[in-house]
């Protein structure tokens, strides 16, 4: 599955547009990460637990979007975007979205 942020893929023609696709996940913090975050807030620096959590969440959202695209018969996603929002205290949603297309080499 090719996933690009552009509206086209060099060397390929769009054969068919399959439609909007998305994948999302909601991740929450746990007490261990909150304690570490509190300590890092005092001394500064990266909060690795949160960075790892968000990286895993992005990968999962992208994977779910790719599954949605495959279910629609696509072999690529163009116009790919990621968005994050807070859905409640200590919980964030990551959504990956784009346009599913079927492409073929020129």
Description:
The chain is of the alpha+beta class. The chain has one domain (2-105): Translation Initiation Factor IF3. 35% of the residues lie in helices and 44% in strands. It has two helices and four strands. The chain has helices at residues 31-43, 48-71; strands at 2-3, 12-28, 76-88, 91-105. The chain has a four-stranded mixed beta sheet. Belongs to the UPF0145 family. InterPro entries: UPF0145_dom_sf (IPR035439), UPF0145_YbjQ-like (IPR002765). This is UPF0145 protein BH0643. It comes from Halalkalibacterium halodurans (strain ATCC BAA-125 / DSM 18197 / FERM 7344 / JCM 9153 / C-125) (Bacillus halodurans).
Q: How much helix is in the residues?
A: 25-40%
What is the H-and-E element order? EEHHEE
- How large is the radius of gyration? 17 Å
General form = elongated
CATH class: Alpha Beta
Mean pLDDT level: 87
> Which strand order spans the largest sheet, edge to edge or round the barrel?
1-3-4-2
Question: For the terminal residues, how far apart are their CA atoms?
Answer: 17 Å
**What is the CATH topology?**
Translation Initiation Factor IF3
Q: What is the number of E strands?
A: 4
CATH architecture: 2-Layer Sandwich
